Amino acid sequence: MSKPPLPEAAVAMLSRPNPAVIATVRSDGHPVSAATWYLWEDGRVLVNMDEGRKRLDHIRNDPRVSLTVLDKDDWYTHVTLIGHVAEMRDDENLVDIDRLSRHYLGQPYATRDRRRVSAWIEIDRWHGWGGFRDSSQAT
Question: What pLDDT score does 133 carry?
Answer without folding.
Answer: 80
